[in-house]
Amino acid sequence: MLIYEVNLTVDAAIVEAFMGWLKPHVEELLGFEGFLKAKVSLDIESQKAEHRTLVVHYYLASEDHYHNYIRDHAPRMRQDGIDRFGNQFTATRRVLTVLNNYPVESD
């Protein structure tokens, strides 16, 4: 399994509009082959700053699915955010390979 992580730094003034756009954006990605699930998180340390930091983890079945996304869909998906919000946000990305999963044990 692969995790495609997108770190978003969003101007506080547009956070609500950005979140409104992000939900269908994530849902569209989940429609691509190999995308299994996604988690959107807010960095709680950023809540009082002039920017908010969001982290999106997309879980993919394989590296091939990631490369297919980058080749076939990423340019359009990324441009959509830029067209809507311009320089009011930044995005950095990285790809992680899951080495181990540890189940939560109950008492």
TrEMBL record:
Q: Which InterPro entries match?
A: Dimeric_a/b-barrel, DUF4286
Cross-referenced SUPFAM superfamilies, in alphabetical order? Dimeric alpha+beta barrel
What protein name applies here? Answer: DUF4286 domain-containing protein
